[in-house]
Write a structure and sequence with these properties.
Membrane topology: Multi-pass membrane protein
GO molecular function: cytochrome bo3 ubiquinol oxidase activity; proton transmembrane transporter activity
Largest sheet: none
Number of domains: 2
Distance between the termini: 95 Å
Keywords: Cell membrane, Electron transport, Membrane, Oxidoreductase, Transmembrane, Transmembrane helix, Transport
Oligomer: single chain
Order of helices and strands: HHHHH
Number of helices: 5
Main location: membrane
Family: Belongs to the cytochrome c oxidase bacterial subunit 4 family.
Number of strands: 0
Shape: flat
Length: 130
C-alpha cells in the first residue's frame, strides 16, 4: 500500500480537516460591529468621569479619584479587547504573559516611586524634624 492508497483508504490527506488558510480559533475576527461596540463603550467611559469631575458629584475628592481610576482601568480593558484584539489565546498566550510582566514592572515602579516620595522629608533632612 503506497501513500496515495493510504490517503484514499483513510479518507484524509494528513491535514486532519485543516484547509490551509491559516485560520484557527485563537484569532479574533475583526468586524465593524466590534469596533462600534468598542467606540461606544469608550465614549461612555470617557463621559462618565468628565461628568463626575465637572459636576462635582461627590463632596470628597478621594471618592471621585477612586472612581476615575476604576473607570480608567475598565477603559484600558475595553481598548485591549476591542481595538488591540488581545485575549488569553492570542499569539499562544504570549501577549497575556507580556502584559502581566509589564503590569508587574509598572506596580513595582509606582510603588517604589510613592515610597520614596512619602519618605522624602525624613530621608533627606533628618535634622529638620519638628
Amino acid at each position: 500500500m503506497n501513500a496515495q492508497d493510504n490517503t484514499l483508504a483513510h479518507g484524509h490527506d494528513g491535514h486532519e480537516g485543516h484547509d490551509g488558510h491559516g485560520h484557527d480559533d485563537s484569532h479574533i475576527h475583526i468586524s465593524m460591529s466590534g469596533y462600534v461596540t468598542g467606540f461606544v463603550l469608550s465614549v461612555i467611559l470617557t463621559t462618565i468621569p468628565f461628568w463626575l469631575v465637572m459636576g462635582k458629584v461627590f463632596e470628597k475628592s478621594s471618592t471621585t479619584a477612586i472612581l476615575l481610576l476604576a473607570l480608567g482601568a475598565v477603559q484600558i480593558v475595553v481598548h485591549m479587547i476591542y481595538f488591540l484584539h488581545m485575549n488569553a489565546k492570542s499569539e499562544g498566550g504570549w501577549n497575556m504573559l507580556a502584559l502581566m510582566f509589564t503590569l508587574v514592572l509598572v506596580v513595582i515602579t509606582l510603588s517604589g516611586t510613592l515610597w520614596v516620595m512619602f519618605h522624602l522629608n525624613s530621608n533627606m533632612m533628618p535634622g529638620m524634624e519638628r
